[in-house]
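User: Could you go from structure to sequence for me? I need the amino acid at each position, not a summary. C-alpha cells:
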C-alpha cells in the first residue's frame, strides 16, 4: 500500500500541476477574450479622435489595441498603422488604414473566443483527471492513517502540545534556508570551475555563494528543529509498523555530529545532516522511525521522530511500543535503562526483531553485552568508529555479529561513517531473513530530498508567476 500511495500521490501531483497550468492559461485566454469585447468602443474613440485631429486620442486607442490584442490581431495592426499616419498628420492615410477595422474586430473576437474555448477544452480533461487522482490519493492517505491508529493513539499520550502554526511556518523558513544552501554551494562550485566566465563574473558568483552559505547555516540551525515532525505525525503519514530506535540519552551528542561526505565537493553536494538523520534515512526503508526524547529538552534532536515518556513510568510506554514495532534498533550505552531495554527486548520480542549497535570506542560495552547473553557475541570494537559492529539474533536466539566496514579487502565505496553502519545492518538482517536492499545509499535520502525539493521550486515559481499573470493580466 505504501508504494501504491506514493505512486498515486506522485502522479496526482504531476497531473494537478499540468491541470493548473492549463487552467491558468485558459483563464488568461478567457480574460483576453472578454477584454477585447470593448474593441468596437475603442475603435469608435479612435475614429472620433481622428476626426478631431487629436493625435493623443488616436495614440491612446492604438495603445489599448496593443495591450489587449495579440500578435495575431488584424485590427491591432491596422490601428497601429493608422495611429502612425495620424502622428504624421496624414488623416486620409490613417482612414485608409482603418476603414475595414470593424470587420477585422469581428474576426479577432472570433479568434479570441475560439482560442479560449480550445484552451478550456485542453484543460478540462486534466482537471477531471487531477480531481479524481487527488481524491484517490486522499482516500489512500486516510487508509494509511488508520493503519497505525493504535500506535498513534499510544504515542499521542506522550507528545507534548505545541502551537499548530509552528511547523508550517518553520517549514517555509526551512525552504528559504535550503534554497540559500543549495544555491550558495552550487555558486561556489560554479565559480571555481566555470573557467570560460570572466574573472569579474566569477568573483561576483563566488562572493554571492560564500555569503549565502552562512545565511543558510544559521537559518537552518534555528528552523530545522522547530519544523521536525512529532512521532504522531510521522506515524500518521505511513501505513507500515514503526521502527523503534532506542539509545542512552548521552549518545545524542555523538549522534548529532555532521560527518563529512566523501566526494561531496567533487559531486557538488553539501550536507548539514547528522549521523542520526543519515541512519534514520536508512531505517526508513522499513517504516517510520520513532524514538524517546530526552525529558525536558526544549527542542528535539533531529533524526528519529521524538515522543516523551513520563520519568516515573517510562518502562510501560517502551514495552508497549516494542510490541507494536516491526524492528527495534538499540544502541548500547552506559545507562541502566539501556540494559533493561536489551533484556526486555530479548525476553518479550521475537529474536529477529532486535538489532544492537556496538559503539567502536567501548570494548567494555561489548563485554557487558556478552554477560547478558547465554552465548557470547564477542563483537569487535574498533577505536575511532562511531559504530563498530551490528548484532542480530537468529531464531534460536544465538547472536550473529556483522562488523561495520570498511574492512580489509573491501572495495572502496564512497560512503560516510553511517553508510557502512547501514550496510552492516542490511547484511546482518539478511541472516535473519529480512531482505531490505540499498540501506547504504538510503543514508543520503535527506540530502537528495533537499536538492530535489529545491529543484522543484523552479516549476512552482513558474506556476505562481503564471497565476499572477492571470490575476493582474500582465
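Assistant: Here is the amino acid at each position, in order:
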Amino acid at each position: 500500500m505504501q508504494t501504491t500511495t506514493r505512486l498515486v500521490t506522485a502522479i496526482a501531483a504531476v497531473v494537478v500541476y499540468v491541470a493548473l497550468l492549463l487552467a491558468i492559461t485558459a483563464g488568461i485566454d478567457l480574460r483576453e477574450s472578454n477584454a477585447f469585447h470593448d474593441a468596437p468602443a475603442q475603435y469608435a474613440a479612435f475614429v472620433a479622435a481622428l476626426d478631431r485631429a487629436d493625435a493623443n486620442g488616436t495614440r491612446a486607442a492604438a495603445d489599448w489595441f496593443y495591450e489587449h490584442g495579440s500578435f495575431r490581431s488584424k485590427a491591432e495592426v491596422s490601428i497601429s498603422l493608422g495611429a502612425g499616419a495620424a502622428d504624421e498628420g496624414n488623416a486620409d492615410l490613417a482612414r485608409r488604414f482603418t476603414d475595414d477595422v470593424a470587420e477585422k474586430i469581428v474576426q479577432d473576437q472570433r479568434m479570441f473566443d475560439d482560442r479560449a474555448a480550445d484552451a478550456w477544452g485542453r484543460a478540462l480533461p486534466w482537471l477531471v483527471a487531477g480531481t479524481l487522482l487527488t481524491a484517490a490519493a486522499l482516500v489512500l492517505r486516510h487508509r494509511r492513517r488508520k493503519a497505525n491508529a493504535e500506535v498513534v493513539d499510544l504515542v499521542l499520550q506522550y507528545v507534548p502540545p505545541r502551537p499548530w502554526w509552528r511547523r508550517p511556518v518553520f517549514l517555509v523558513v526551512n525552504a528559504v534556508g535550503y534554497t540559500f544552501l543549495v544555491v550558495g554551494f552550487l555558486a561556489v562550485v560554479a565559480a571555481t570551475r566555470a573557467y570560460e566566465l570572466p574573472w569579474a563574473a566569477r568573483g561576483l558568483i563566488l562572493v554571492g555563494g560564500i555569503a549565502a552559505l552562512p545565511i543558510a547555516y544559521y537559518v537552518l540551525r534555528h528552523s530545522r528543529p522547530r519544523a521536525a515532525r512529532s512521532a504522531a505525525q510521522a506515524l500518521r503519514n505511513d501505513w507500515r509498523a514503526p521502527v523503534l530506535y532506542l539509545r542512552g540519552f548521552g549518545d545524542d551528542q555523538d549522534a548529532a555530529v555532521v560527518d563529512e561526505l566523501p566526494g561531496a565537493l567533487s559531486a557538488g553536494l553539501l550536507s548539514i545532516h547528522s549521523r542520526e538523520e543519515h541512519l534514520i534515512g536508512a531505517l526508513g526503508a522499513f517504516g517510520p522511525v520513532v524514538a524517546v526524547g530526552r525529558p525536558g529538552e526544549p527542542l528535539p534532536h533531529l533524526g528519529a521522530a521524538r515522543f516523551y515518556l513520563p520519568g516515573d513510568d517510562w518502562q510501560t510506554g517502551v514495552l508497549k511500543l516494542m510490541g507494536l514495532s516491526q524492528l527495534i534498533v538499540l544502541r548500547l550505552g552506559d545507562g541502566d535503562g539501556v540494559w533493561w531495554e536489551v533484556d526486555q527486548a530479548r525476553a518479550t520480542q521475537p529474536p529477529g526483531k532486535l538489532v544492537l549497535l556496538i559503539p567502536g570506542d567501548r570494548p567494555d560495552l561489548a563485554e557487558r553485552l556478552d554477560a547478558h547473553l547465554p552465548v557470547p557475541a564477542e563483537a569487535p570494537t574498533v577505536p575511532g568508529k562511531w559504530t563498530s559492529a551490528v548484532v542480530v539474533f537468529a531464531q534460536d536466539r544465538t547472536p550473529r555479529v556483522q562488523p561495520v566496514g570498511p574492512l580489509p579487502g573491501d572495495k572502496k565505496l564512497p560512503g560516510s561513517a553511517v553508510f557502512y553502519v547501514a550496510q552492516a545492518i542490511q547484511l546482518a538482517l539478511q541472516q535473519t531473513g529480512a531482505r531490505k536492499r540499498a540501506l547504504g545509499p538510503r543514508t543520503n535520502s535527506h540530502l537528495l530530498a533537499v536538492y530535489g525539493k529545491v529543484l522543484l521550486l523552479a516549476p512552482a515559481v513558474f506556476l505562481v508567476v503564471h497565476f499572477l499573470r492571470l490575476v493582474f493580466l500582465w
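One structural detail worth keeping in mind: The chain has 19 helices and seven strands.
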